[in-house]
Write a structure and sequence with these properties.
60% helix, disordered N terminus
C-alpha cells in the first residue's frame, strides 16, 4: 500500500460499480476510508463505551425486577465451551498487547478486548438474566472489533499489485478473535425460565427444550440437530416419538390467553395478531428486508468479472475477490433467508395454535352457533339467484372449514411478508440499472408501472370470486360433514347417488369460481410478465438506438441479471398481491365468527328453581317456553312429560344455560351431569367414555356399570369395557349408547342429574332393572334428578311431575316424600336378577405401557401410505388422457427452449457489437424482440395447459372420492373417523385445487431447464462438466436423504391435523354435555391443546429440516457458481466476453435451479401425498364389489346380480332360512340359525332385551351384515343376488335416530326426486294429524302472533326449510317426518327400529294408526317393528322374541301371553298398567 490518505477528498462515482481514486498513485477511496475507520480508534472506543453504558443500565434494571437471581439451566458441554472461551479471550488480549508494542493503533483493540475479557470474568459470578445480557454484549463488541481490525489490516490485500504486508502479531490476534467468535457460535446456550409476570396457566411448568439450548450456529445456520432425524428417516421410519419437545412459549393455553387479551384491545383478528406478535413480526421484516440485498452480490460480481475479462489492464481489485463476494453474498443471503423463513413459519405456527385454541374456547363458552354466522348472506342470495335454490353452510361445517382451509390461507401471510420486504432490494436493483444503462431505465420503469391499474382491476375480480369460492367451500364441507355423519340413514334408503349428485352440484359451482380465479391469475401473470419484457426491450432499444452505445457483455448480462431479479421480485410480489384478497377474506371470516359469539347465561348458584322464566332455543327461534315457574324438589326425582314438541328438551337445556333467557330468574348448582336424548359418546373405549376425564375408582365404577346393566354387555363384548365405540358410537346399539351415557352421568359427583328420556331406547326388562339399580339406590342419594320420560309408572314414583304443553306448564303434581322402592321382578325371567353381584369382567385391566399405546397421529400416517412409482405422471394421467399429457409436456419443452434461445441470441448480439456495424443493430434487436414476445406467448399457452389439466384433475379426483365415500361399506367408517375424512376432503382438496399444480409445473420446468442449460454451458466450457456433476451428485445425495425425511415429516404434520379436527368436531357435538360441568370445558381445551402441541412438534421439525437442506444446497449451488466463474477467469484468454457472460449467467441459473429442484421435488413429494390420499378414497371398493365378502356361505358361491321383473317386489313377504350372521366375516356369530317367515300383509313385532339381536335382524334384511350360512328371501328372491341399491330402494326404514338434512322438506322426504309432489303432499298431510306435528303448528301460529319477526311457516309444507341436522324440529317431530318418508315411498316392506320409543303415547298412537292404514292400503305390504313399548304392538299379527342372537319365541301376542314364556316375562316387567291391560 503506497499511501493512506486521511483527507476528506470529494467522492464522485463514475458509475454504480466504478471506483474513485484520490490521486493517480493512491488506492481507491473506499479502501482508504475502510483502513482509516479501522485504524483511527474512535470506532473501537465508541463501541466499548456504548456497551459499558448498556451493561450498567440493564444490570440495574435486572436487579430491580428481581430476574437476576434465578439459576439458569446449563446444557451438556457448555462448561467446556465457556472454559475455551475464557482461554481464547485471554490469548486474544495478549496478542493485541504484543501488537500494540509495535503499533500504538492496536491499543484501542487491546482495550476493547480487555473489556470483553472482564465481562467474561464478571459473568462467572452473576446469575439469572444478567448472564445472557453480558454474553450478548461480549458478542457485540467482539464482532465489532473483528470487523474493524479486518478493515484496517486485511482490506489492502484485495488490491492488485499490493505491497502491504500484515504484522504477525496482528494476524494471530485476528485469528484468535475469529476463533473466539466461533466458540460463541458453537457453544450451547443457557436456558432461562419465563419471566415473572407472564400469565401462565395453572399447573404449568416450563422446562428447557432442545431449541432453547442448542448453539447459535446450529439453530440459525447449519441446523445440525436435524442430522439424527435425517439419518433415522433414511434407515427406518420416524414417528411422533422422534419429534423434539417444543419450547414452553408454544403452550396453547398461554398463546390463547395472550390472543384473547390482545383481541379485547383490537377491533380485528389481524390487529390482535400483530399486537401480540409484534416483536417477532418486526424481526421478520428486518430479516426479510436484509437478505435480498445480498442477492445483489451476484450481479456485482458478474459485472466486475466480465469487465476484468474485457479490460484486465484497468482492473484494480483481484478478480478472485469477486468469487469470494459471489459465494459469501450467497451464503449470507441463505443464512438470513433461512432465519427469515424459520421465524415466519414459526409465526404461522403461533397463529394456528392461538386461533384454533381461541375458536374452540369461544365456541365452548358461547351459545351454539347456527345459520350463516360468517355473514355470507349477500353471497348466499347471489348464489340463490343464479341457481334457484338456497344453500348455506352449517355452523359445525363452517367452524371446521375455518380451522382448516381458512387457517392454512392465513398462514400464507408469511409469504406475503416475504414479498413485501423485497421491495427495498428491488429499488436498489433499479438504482443499479440506472448506473449501468443510464436514463433508458426510466422508460422501463414507466412501462412496468403501467401494469399497476390493470393489476388492480384484475385483483378486484379475484376478490369477488374468492369470496364466492369461500362461501361455496363452506357449503360443500358442511354438506359433506352432515351427510357423512348420517351415512347410515343414507344407505338405509339407497340414496347414495342422489346425495353424490347434490354434492357434485355444489362442487361444480365451487370449481367454476376456481376456474375464474385461475383465468384471472393467468391474465395477471401475463400482464406482469409482458410489461417487464417490454420494459427491457425499451431500455435496450433506447440504449443502442438513441444513445448509440455498444451493447457489451458486461452491460447486457448485468442488465439482464439485475432486471431478472427485479422481474422475479415483481412476479413474486404480484403473485402474493393476488393471494392477499384470499387472506383478507379469511381474516374477516374470523372477525365474523368472533362477532357472532353469544355468551352463555351464567345462573346464580342455589336450589334448582325457575321463576317466571321465558326461554328460546336461539335468538331467532320461534318456539319459546313461556312463564315457567318451577321449584324442583331438591335431592328428589323430578319428571317432565308432554307430547313431542311441547318443549321438554328445551326446558332441560334452559336449566343448563344453553338457551336464551328473555325474562325471569333461574338458580341451580354450579355443576350438573347431562345425558342427552340422542346419546353422545366419544370415539374411545367404553371405559374412557364412562370415566369422562375422572380417575378410575374401582368400587364406584363397578357400582355404576352394574346399575346401568352394562355388566351383561361387557361379558358379551370381546374386549369388555375396553371395546372401542367408534365414530358416533357405531359399535354399540342404541340402548347400549344410552346406558353408557347414563353411566357417564352417574359416575360424576355432580349434585344435579339432568336425564333426557333415557328409557326410550331400552326394553321393558332392562328399564325395570335400571329403575331398581339407579333410582332406588345410593347412586342418586343427595342428588337432584330431573328426568324427561314418557313412562307413566315412572312419573307416578316422582316427587314432582311436570307436564308441558305448547311451551307452557300444563300441570305440576307433587308427591314430595314418596319413598321409591325397587319394582318386584317376575321370577324365572331367565335374566340376571337384581341381586347378582357385579361382573368380574370390569376388573381393572393390566395397564398398557405408554410405548405400546396406539398413537393417533402415527396411525393416521399408516393409513396415508406412501406414494410409489412416478407420482407426477400418475397425477398428470388425471389431466384427460395421454394426448393431453403429451401436449402439456411439449408446451413445457417449447417454453424452456424459447427462453434459452432468447438468452443465446443475446450472446450472439454482444459478440458482434464490437464490429460497430450500425446497420446490424436493428437486426439483432428485432430478432431479440421477436424471440422475447414469442417466449411470453408460449408461456401463456403453457400456463393455460397446465391449469386446465389441474382443474380437470381436481374435478375428477373429487368426484371419484365422493362417489367412493358414499358407496363404501359401513364397516369402513368404524376404522376411519369422519374427522379424518373431512380433513382430507377440505384441506387436501384445497391443496389439489390451489397448490399442487404449481409444484408440478415448477418441478418439470426446473428439471428441463437444468438439463438444457448444463448442455449449453458444456458446449463452450467442457471442463465445467466435471466439477458440476460432482457437486450435483453430492446435492442429489443430500436431496434424497432430505426427501425421505420430508415425506415422513409431511405425513406426520398432515396426519396431526385429523385428530385436531376430530377432537374439535367431537367437542362441538357434545357441548351441552361438556358444559354442564364447569371444569370440563377447560379439560377438553387441554386435550385439544395437547394435540396442537403434537402438531407443533412435527411442524417445527419440518421447518428445521427444510432449513437443513437449504443451507447445504445453497452451499453446493454457490460452489457451482464459483466454479464456473473461476474456470471463466482461468480461461479468459480463450473465451469472448459474450460467451463468458452467457456461461456465467447460465451457471447462476443452474445453481439456483438445482437448489429450486430440491425444494420443488420435496414440495411435490409432499403434495403428491395429498393427491395419493384423495386418490385412495377414489379407489375404495364399493359395496357392490364386496358381495363375496358380505356373503361368505361356506361351500357356495355368490350368485351374480339378477334381472328382476318390473313388478318386483309384488309383496313384502320375507323369509329367513337357517341364517347365521356376523358383522365381520371372521368375527363371532351375532344371529344363529334363524328360521323365520313374515307373510305378506302381516304386521310383525320384534322384541327382546337390549343387545339381543333385534337391530341385527333388521340390518340383515338390508345386507349390512355378513351372511355366513342360509338365505334371506325377499318376495321369493335371495337378497344376495340383488345389488345393494336394488334391495334398499325396495325397502323403507325408520331408524332409531332419525336424520334430517339441510334443504327443503321435499328434498328430505325424497332426495332422489322420483316421487310425485302429490304423493309427497299426501304423506305430509297424514303427518299433520299426528300430535307432535299438530302441536308444532299450533305453537308456530302462536309464536307468529306474538312475534312479527318470525320467519317460521305456520304449517309444514313441502318447501319448508329444514336446517342442518333438523335442528329446527324436535326429536319427536323428526321421527314423524321420517314416517313421512316411508309413507311417500310406498314400499312393500317397511321396517321400524324402535322409532317411537321416545314419543309420547298420543304421538305413538298417531304413528301406529298411520302405519296400520299404510299397511292396509296396498295388498301384500309387510310391517316389521322393533319395539320396546309393548302397548303399541298389542294388535300386531306376530311377535318374535329375540335373546342372545337366537329366536326364543314366535307367535301372536295372545298365544305368547298364554304360553307364559319370554314374552310374558317382558310384559310383566312393563310397569305401564295400560300396556299390561291391553296385552
Amino acid at each position: 500500500m503506497d499511501v493512506v490518505s486521511l483527507s476528506s477528498s470529494r467522492v464522485n462515482f463514475q458509475d454504480f460499480f466504478g471506483y474513485v481514486y484520490d490521486g493517480e498513485q493512491q488506492d481507491p477511496a473506499w479502501i482508504q476510508r475502510l483502513v482509516a475507520l479501522g485504524r483511527h480508534g474512535s470506532a473501537q472506543a465508541a463501541v466499548t463505551l456504548a456497551s459499558l453504558a448498556w451493561v450498567i443500565v440493564r444490570t440495574i434494571k435486572i436487579r430491580r425486577d428481581g430476574s437476576g437471581k434465578t439459576a439458569p439451566f446449563k446444557p451438556r458441554g457448555i462448561l467446556f465451551y465457556e472454559a475455551l472461551g475464557h482461554f481464547l479471550r485471554g490469548l486474544t488480549l495478549s496478542l493485541f498487547l504484543v501488537a500494540s508494542s509495535h503499533s500504538r493503533r492496536h491499543w484501542y483493540n487491546a482495550v476493547a478486548v480487555g473489556y470483553v475479557f472482564l465481562l467474561g470474568l464478571f459473568r462467572i459470578v452473576v446469575r439469572g438474566r444478567t448472564r445472557p445480557m453480558l454474553l450478548h454484549q461480549m458478542v457485540f463488541v467482539s464482532t465489532s472489533i473483528l470487523a474493524l481490525t479486518c478493515a484496517a489490516d486485511l482490506s489492502p490485500l484485495i488490491l492488485l499489485h499490493s505491497r502491504f504486508r500484515l504484522d504477525l502479531a496482528a494476524s494471530l490476534a485476528i485469528a484468535s478473535l475469529g476463533a473466539t467468535m466461533l466458540v460463541y457460535g458453537f457453544s450451547p446456550r443457557e436456558w432461562q425460565p419465563p419471566r415473572d409476570g407472564v400469565d401462565v396457566p395453572e399447573g404449568f411448568k416450563a422446562e428447557p427444550s432442545d431449541e432453547e439450548t442448542r448453539s447459535w450456529v446450529n439453530e440459525n445456520v447449519t441446523f445440525g440437530h436435524i442430522d439424527k432425524l435425517i439419518y433415522k428417516s433414511f434407515t427406518s421410519k420416524i414417528g411422533m416419538d422422534d419429534m423434539p419437545k417444543v419450547p414452553w412459549h408454544y403452550h396453547p393455553e398461554l398463546l390463547r390467553r395472550g390472543f384473547a387479551d390482545a383481541r379485547k384491545n383490537s377491533k380485528s383478528t389481524g390487529g390482535a395478531l400483530f399486537a401480540l406478535l409484534g416483536p417477532q413480526i418486526v424481526q421478520s421484516i428486518v430479516l426479510g428486508t436484509a437478505y435480498p440485498f445480498f442477492e445483489l452480490c451476484g450481479p456485482l460480481s458478474l459485472y466486475n468479472i466480465l469487465e476484468y475479462i474485457r479490460k484486465p489492464e484497468e482492473a484494480t481489485v483481484q478478480p478472485y475477490v469477486w468469487l469470494v463476494v459471489m459465494f459469501g453474498g450467497r451464503l449470507l443471503q441463505s443464512i438470513l433467508l433461512q432465519k427469515f423463513i424459520s421465524v415466519t413459519r414459526k409465526l404461522a405456527m403461533y397463529f394456528k395454535i392461538m386461533l384454533t385454541s381461541e375458536v374452540y374456547h369461544c365456541a365452548m363458552n358461547s351459545r351454539e352457533l347456527s345459520g350463516n354466522f360468517l355473514d355470507d348472506t349477500k353471497k348466499k342470495e347471489e348464489n340463490a339467484g343464479e341457481t334457484g335454490e338456497v344453500r348455506e353452510g352449517t355452523a359445525a361445517g363452517m367452524l371446521e372449514n375455518l380451522i382448516s382451509t381458512d387457517m392454512n390461507t392465513i398462514t400464507h401471510l408469511r409469504v406475503f411478508l416475504m414479498a413485501l420486504t423485497q421491495i427495498p432490494a428491488s429499488l436498489l436493483a433499479v438504482v443499479g440499472l440506472y448506473s449501468v444503462i443510464g436514463w433508458p431505465m426510466f422508460a422501463g420503469i414507466f412501462i412496468v408501472l403501467l401494469s399497476t391499474p390493470i393489476a388492480g382491476y384484475i385483483m378486484s375480480f379475484m376478490m369477488a370470486f374468492e369470496q364466492k369460492l369461500k362461501a361455496l367451500q363452506d357449503v360443500r364441507v358442511s354438506l359433506l360433514s352432515e351427510y357423512l355423519r348420517s351415512i347410515k340413514a343414507i344407505k338405509y334408503f339407497g340414496w347414495e347417488d342422489s346425495i353424490v349428485e347434490r354434492i357434485k352440484g355444489i362442487r361444480a359451482k365451487e370449481q367454476q369460481q376456481n376456474w375464474y380465479i385461475s383465468m384471472c391469475w393467468i391474465a395477471f401473470q401475463q400482464i406482469t410478465s409482458f410489461m417487464p419484457i417490454g420494459a427491457m426491450l425499451a431500455m435496450f432499444s433506447l440504449y443502442v438506438g438513441v444513445l448509440k452505445l455498444r451493447m457489451t457483455a458486461s452491460i447486457a448480462y448485468t442488465t439482464i441479471t439485475l432486471f431478472d431479479g427485479v422481474r422475479q421480485n415483481l412476479d413474486f410480489i404480484s403473485g402474493m398481491a393476488l393471494e392477499l384478497p384470499r387472506m383478507l377474506v379469511c381474516l374477516r371470516r374470523f372477525d365474523s365468527f368472533f362477532r357472532a359469539l353469544d355468551p352463555l347465561d351464567r345462573y346464580p348458584e342455589g336450589p334448582v328453581r325457575m321463576e317466571g322464566a321465558t326461554f328460546r332455543r336461539s335468538r331467532t327461534a320461534n318456539f319459546r317456553l313461556s312463564d315457567i315457574t318451577i321449584n324442583f324438589v331438591e335431592n328428589g326425582l323430578n319428571t317432565v312429560t308432554g307430547i313431542s314438541g311441547s318443549g321438554k328438551t328445551t326446558l332441560l337445556l334452559a336449566l343448563l344455560g344453553e338457551t336464551v333467557k328473555e325474562t325471569g330468574s333461574v338458580t341451580r348448582p354450579r355443576d350438573a351431569a347431562f345425558a342427552s336424548q340422542t346419546s353422545w359418546v366419544q370415539a374411545r373405549s367404553i371405559r374412557d367414555n364412562i370415566l369422562f376425564t375422572l380417575e378410575y375408582d374401582a368400587t364406584r365404577y363397578k357400582a355404576v356399570i352394574r346399575a346401568c346393566c352394562l355388566d351383561i354387555d361387557f361379558r358379551e363384548l370381546a374386549d369388555g369395557d375396553q371395546t372401542q365405540v367408534g365414530e358416533n358410537g357405531a359399535a354399540l346399539s342404541g340402548g347400549q349408547r344410552a346406558r353408557v351415557a347414563l353411566a357417564r352421568a352417574l359416575y360424576t359427583f355432580a349434585p344435579l342429574l339432568i336425564l333426557d328420556d333415557i328409557f326410550s331406547a331400552l326394553d321393558t326388562k332392562t328399564s325395570a332393572l335400571l329403575w331398581n339399580r339407579v333410582f332406588c339406590s345410593e347412586l342418586v342419594k343427595n342428588r337432584t334428578v330431573i328426568l324427561v320420560t314418557q313412562l307413566n309408572w315412572v312419573t307416578e314414583e316422582a316427587d314432582l311431575s311436570i307436564t308441558l304443553e305448547d311451551g307452557s306448564i300444563k300441570s305440576i303434581d307433587q308427591n314430595i316424600g314418596h319413598a321409591r322402592i325397587p319394582q318386584a321382578l317376575p321370577a324365572g325371567s331367565g335374566e340376571v336378577s337384581d341381586e347378582v353381584p357385579a361382573a368380574d369382567s370390569v376388573d381393572q385391566p393390566p395397564k398398557v405401557p405408554e410405548a405400546e399405546k396406539s398413537n393417533l397421529i402415527d396411525e393416521e400416517v399408516e393409513q396415508s401410505g406412501v406414494l410409489g412409482g412416478f407420482p407426477v405422471l400418475q397425477y398428470m394421467m388425471y389431466f384427460g388422457g395421454p394426448i393431453v399429457i403429451i401436449w402439456t409436456l411439449f408446451a413445457m419443452l417449447s417454453q424452456t427452449g424459447a427462453e434459452l434461445v432468447t438468452k443465446y441470441w443475446l450472446r450472439v448480439w454482444v459478440d458482434h457489437s464490437d464490429a460497430e456495424a450500425s446497420s446490424n443493430t436493428a437486426y439483432y434487436l428485432g430478432v431479440f424482440v421477436a424471440l422475447s414476445i414469442s417466449t411470453e406467448l408460449i408461456n401463456t399457452v403453457c400456463f393455460w395447459t397446465f391449469i386446465r389439466g389441474a382443474w380437470y384433475a381436481a374435478k375428477t379426483l373429487h368426484e371419484r372420492a365422493v362417489f367412493a365415500l358414499f358407496n363404501v361399506s359401513l364397516a369402513w367408517y368404524t376404522e376411519n373417523p369422519v374427522g379424518r375424512v373431512i380433513n382430507r376432503m377440505s384441506g387436501d382438496i384445497e391443496t389439489i385445487d390451489q397448490n399442487i399444480i404449481g409444484s408440478v409445473f415448477m418441478t418439470a420446468r426446473t428439471m428441463i431447464m437444468t438439463a438444457m442449460m448444463l448442455s449449453a454451458i458444456t458446449v463452450f466450457l467442457p471442463i465445467f462438466m466435471g466439477p458440476t456433476l460432482a457437486l450435483a451428485a453430492l446435492g442429489v445425495l443430500v436431496g434424497i436423504m432430505y426427501n425421505r425425511n420430508a415425506i415422513y415429516l409431511k405425513q406426520l404434520v398432515s396426519a396431526s391435523q385429523s385428530p385436531i379436527l376430530s377432537n374439535f368436531s367431537e367437542g362441538l357435538n357434545g357441548m351441552a354435555i361438556i358444559r354442564a360441568t364447569s371444569s370440563l370445558p377447560g379439560v377438553f381445551s387441554e386435550m385439544l391443546g395437547s394435540l396442537l402441541l403434537s402438531s407443533a412438534e412435527a411442524g417445527i421439525s419440518q421447518i428445521d429440516a427444510d432449513q437443513w437442506i437449504k443451507f447445504r444446497m445453497n452451499t453446493i449451488s454457490g460452489l457451482i457458481n464459483v466454479c464456473a466463474a473461476f474456470l471463466a477467469i482461468w480461461q479468459s484468454d480463450k473465451l469472448s466476453a459474450g460467451i463468458v457472460g452467457f456461461c456465467l449467467s447460465q451457471a447462476t441459473e443452474i445453481s439456483s435451479a438445482i437448489l429450486a429442484m430440491v425444494f420443488t421435488v420435496s414440495e411435490l413429494n409432499l403434495q403428491m401425498q395429498t393427491f395419493h390420499r384423495v386418490r385412495q378414497y377414489g379407489k375404495l371398493p364399493p359395496e357392490a364389489e364386496s358381495a363375496s365378502e358380505n356373503t361368505v356361505i361356506e361351500g357356495a358361491e355368490a350368485e351374480p346380480p339378477r334381472a328382476l321383473s318390473p313388478n318386483w317386489p309384488s309383496t313384502g313377504a320375507i323369509e329367513f332360512q337357517n341364517v347365521t350372521v356376523r358383522y365381520d366375516s371372521d368375527g363371532p356369530d351375532i344371529l344363529k340359525d334363524i328360521n323365520l317367515r313374515f307373510n305378506a300383509g302381516e304386521r310383525v313385532a320384534v322384541v327382546g332385551r337390549t343387545g339381543s339381536g333385534k337391530s341385527t335382524l333388521v340390518l340383515s334384511m338390508l345386507r349390512f351384515t355378513n351372511i355366513v350360512s342360509g338365505k334371506i328371501l325377499y318376495d321369493g328372491v335371495d337378497i344376495t343376488t340383488l345389488t345393494y341399491k336394488q334391495l334398499r330402494q325396495a325397502i323403507s326404514m325408520i331408524p332409531q335416530e332419525s336424520q334430517l338434512f339441510q334443504g327443503t322438506l321435499a328434498e328430505n322426504l325424497d332426495p332422489t326426486g322420483t316421487i310425485s309432489e302429490a304423493n309427497l303432499q299426501k304423506a305430509l298431510d297424514v303427518c299433520h294429524s299426528i300430535a307432535a306435528v299438530r302441536a308444532s303448528r299450533q305453537q308456530s301460529a302462536a309464536s307468529s302472533d306474538d312475534d312479527s319477526s318470525s320467519n317460521a311457516p305456520e304449517s309444514l309444507a313441502l318447501d319448508t326449510q329444514v336446517k342442518a341436522k333438523g335442528e329446527n324440529f324436535s326429536h319427536g317431530q323428526r321421527q314423524v317426518l321420517s314416517l313421512c318418508r316411508i309413507l311417500a315411498r310406498r314400499s312393500m316392506l317397511m321396517l321400524l327400529d324402535e322409532a317411537t320409543s321416545s314419543m309420547d303415547s298420543e304421538t305413538d298412537a298417531g304413528i301406529q294408526k298411520a302405519l296400520r292404514e299404510a299397511a292396509a292400503e296396498g295388498e301384500g305390504r309387510c310391517l316389521i317393528t322393533i319395539a320396546h313399548r309393548l302397548k303399541s304392538i298389542a294388535d300386531y299379527d306376530k311377535v318374535v322374541v329375540m335373546g342372545s342372537g337366537e329366536v326364543l319365541e314366535v307367535g301372536s301376542p295372545q298365544e305368547l301371553m298364554a304360553k307364559k314364556g319370554s314374552y310374558y316375562d317382558l310384559v310383566m316387567h312393563d310397569r305401564d298398567s295400560n300396556s299390561r291391560d291391553s296385552l
